[in-house]
Amino acid sequence: MNPSKQYTLLEIKKGVRGRVHRIAGGTQAVKRLYALGIIPGKEIVKVSEMPLHGPVVVNVEQTQVALGFGLAKKVIVEVV
Amino acid sequence: MNVLLVGNPNVGKSVVFSQLTGTRVISSNYPGTTVEYTRGYLNLNGERVEVIDVPGSYTLEPTCKAEEVAVAMLPYGDVIINVVDATNLERNLYLTLELLERQVPMIVALNLWDEAQHKGILVNTAKLEEILGIPVVPTAALSGQGIKKLIARLPEARTGRVNWQTPDERYAAVGRIVREVQQVTHRHHTLLEQLEDLSVMPLTGFLLGTAVLFCAFKVIRFVGEGLINFIFVPLFEKGYAPLLERLSAALGGQGVLHNLLVGQLIDGKIDFVQSLGLLSTGFYVPLAMVLPYIIAFYAVLGFLEDFGYLPRFAVLLDGLMHRVGLHGYAIIPMILGLGCNVPAGLSIRNLESRRQKFIASTLMVIAVPCFSQTAMIFALVGRHGGFYVAYIFFTLFYIWLFLGLLLNRKLKGYTPSLLIEIPPYRLPELRVLAQKLYLRLSHFFKEAIPFILAGILIVNIIHLSGFTGLAARTFGPVFRFLFGLPGDAVIALFLGFLRKDVAVGILAPLNLTPEQLVVASTVLTVYFPCMASFLILLRELGWWDMLKVTGIMLTTAVVAGTFVNLAFHRYGILAWLCALSVTIGLLILDTSARRKDAAVQEERGP
């Protein structure tokens, strides 16, 4: 396991609650994720992950958001 | 004065718009239903106020064409009604604060108020008003609650208070406001919410998805056939046929006028499908063959849209869609295209890159038959057995997949990842569904009937002018060689420019074998869109890209038609085995290319 307790959204298990630490991506990715409320400091819960590089579904605030594999890889969370 | 309705996607702007202006627009439960602006008018104390429904946007920095439309509209508003989802205050307020910075008079409609209450979310509107410095009115637009109050307070709209500067400060301000005005009480998950989660889990999601598709198909068949057999056909046979027979007799049973109006008599009788008269086939095709299935299709689609299933479908199919250079959300234009390619062509605006738009338009227009055409295929091909209908749709799906894999390999650029909000499931109200169905049907009537009548008229002119023989002689050799079809079938291709349903319809008098019908239907779907879809795509893609799409369409049509012809008459299952192995080869190439990409990225470091 990672000593700093930081994982990408792909690495954490379904049902795990985490706090967004940072977005390891370009400005476009950051802009799109911020717009949907995936912002550093926010708590999110991973709901599911589709097989074969499919999307990850998370709960953030009152909504559910689906992030494609590529974006999910860029969201770094701290497990709380 | 004009008023803009601005807000995040899927917060109910179009519903508020319909309530304010009485102008009906299509609304659904998924982000990105509205991709263009619509104008309507509201009478405010005797003054005629223009209200504009604007596509949804999360921020004022657009990431797709639909959002660009929204942002480009902003300078034209004297007043903004910011529609805010009360169940989702935090995310919505970001846009609200961005709008406040523009210093345009504004009022907030805190929509979905009823749903927020059910969810145990309480918003202190007085406090919110005080903090923002602008009026805040709770509304539940679907039921019309709060709309009167919104209109009454519209004149109070004013510029608000702005005490932040940078985007970070803006986020901080949102957080502060939410903490002050919102209270959330916990409560147990309802059955619908459990179903929401199950719909996006791998195993249960795919099971539910298959069940939804299966049920949708069964219901469409059941309702469509039911309407045809018990209502529309009896109406034509019992009610309309005797009148037409009297007209036929009065006109002497033959002659130019008779053939134009009533059509050719088949074995001395009027045959609604084959006579090809304006008053016989011209009405029978749109009303008794196509309309029943259109009703059935849009009833089912409307339910799935408003229930909120489509975004979940996008999640399930994201993996597959990436193989063809798209992401899951591109399934929405494909599904809309099954109804009509015109709205589907517009909804492609929700996709982010030019590459995605090109691929999505190409695949949609080539391999997705509209339901008018599908209904005719059911009617003409279906009577030879479900096998042949399934053959057509399997071939089209195969073309879709193969062409997508090929385009994804050949086109430069990459596909951005899927990122969508998944709305909650909502049980649709019958009244709302009926309104939407009515809207879509009236569109069908306006589009379909004139074009079908025009098509029948043109066929008659072609027959009268002796062009049929000429066309059959000219195209006969090519058509027979490539597709195994008689030269007359070329007229169907001509009519396909007008409308696909009538084009399939005029294959009926040609006495084709079921195999020939399969070839002809496939070629008709693929070779070129109808005029209406062509014009929409031309506008969305521009001349250059549309030229490329046209080239791809014509090539695909020739290849696909020849392939199906050969598969039927010469190589049989062997042809399909070859085709499938090529596809599997492409899939393997795609997977290895992806691995390589991932490895390169890994080396470069995070």
From TrEMBL, chain B:
According to the lineage, what is the superkingdom? Answer: Bacteria
Keyword Methyltransferase assigned to the entry: answer is no
| Keyword Transmembrane helix assigned | yes
| SUPFAM superfamilies associated with the record | P-loop containing nucleoside triphosphate hydrolases
Q: Record's Gene3D superfamilies?
A: P-loop containing nucleotide triphosphate hydrolases
Q: Name one GO cellular component term.
A: plasma membrane
MF annotations from Gene Ontology = ferrous iron transmembrane transporter activity; GTP binding
Q: Where is the FeoB-type G domain?
A: 1-160
Q: Enumerate the transmembrane spans.
A: 200-220, 283-304, 324-346, 358-381, 387-407, 448-472, 478-497, 517-537, 571-589
> One matching Pfam family, short form?
FeoB_N
Q: Which controlled-vocabulary keywords does the entry list?
A: GTP-binding, Membrane, Nucleotide-binding, Transmembrane, Transmembrane helix
Q: What is this protein called?
A: Ferrous iron transporter B
Its source organism is: Ammonifex degensii
